[in-house]
Amino acid sequence: MKATRKATGQPAGKAVRAGRSAALSVLLAAGLVLLPSTTAHADGIRAQQWALEAMHTQEAWQTTKGEGVTVAVLDTGVEADHPDLIGNVLTGKDLVGFGAEPGDRAWARHGTAMAGIIAGHGHGPGNADGVLGIAPEAKILPVRVILEDGDPSRAKARSTRGNALADGIRWAADHGADVINLSLGDDSASAHPEPTEDQAIQYALKKGVIVVASAGNGGEKGDHISYPAAYPGVIAATAVDRSGTRASFSTRRWYATVSAPGVDVVIADPDEKYYEGWGTSAAAAFVSGAAALVKAAHPDLTPAQVKTLLEDTARNAPAGGRDDSRGFGFVDPAAAIEAADRIEPEGLHSAAYGEKYFGSGPDATASGDDTADWAAPLAGSAGGVLLVAAVVLWRGRRTTRDDI
Fold this sequence. Notes:
CATH class: Alpha Beta
Number of domains: 1
Strand content: 15-25%
Largest sheet: 7 strands, parallel
Number of strands: 14
Helix content: 10-25%
Strand order of the largest sheet: 4-7-3-8-9-10-11
Number of helices: 11
CATH topology: Rossmann fold
């Protein structure tokens, strides 16, 4: 979904975007479905994170765990006090300005889940409990650009217009982001390119910021094109299960770059419970973590170089080298880091896009910093992918919020 949409796997509501009067489908966060606890303990969560082994994280971590890299998570907000994220979340920006607040049930669920996948460090003795991210030493820069599907203020958001996503991309690029994670998108039947968003992405690329987005959850609903995944220069993530098979919900389109885990993904929630979810939102977060590792090991690489490295080193490539369902194959940050040792920091161009998409992007337009200047994002949904629904895996001790 777009700056105003979340990716979930369930159809929810619709939203109106700046510059677009057509309704947007609500892809994400519509509220994770809480089911009875499966009795898993915190120390059992790690064992269920099959993506850690699948993505060869131990090999990559011999070089780096992401220290020195900042990943901007443009989403519903991030719970900085979550035990798996404490110390890894920087002061960010709220471009929504209304709706749920910290402590509310509809606050930052999707964004916290994505942040945990990217840079969770676990908790407890030796950080052996909880969610461990792909780049556990990276920093998260939260930028709130959409509302949770369960936020009562979504009705208000539907009646407003704004450029929260485009503004958020530019803000992140100007405030230290090395990677921008967009686990959101618009893949409604009326989805089309928005110049302000396209220009913002080119602006970020021009500044050396890697941009990753979810490919969309429309694989069973017509494979509609999803934006921002389809904008030039974006690394678009599709979802696969633990056997490497494309998830049925994962959108198949020309812009698919690589695939990543998107089924039975363990996610952290602000309520300090853990859930299993699915969606290309999760896949995008995994790819953002992979990009963060590559950037930490090779900080001088350009966005085009990182994109090409992830393509060239992906595992289990489809017949012919690439297809619309899995891109160039399953992302492998360890292989990308190793391959990067053999290239020069400059001079490598994306075989798919070249200078057309990695050249100078439009400069930012003057804008105030007051929340009132940032019209509301599209009504809640995080984007093209998300996790829908879920099973409670473990319930932690709560002292500030009632259990649900």
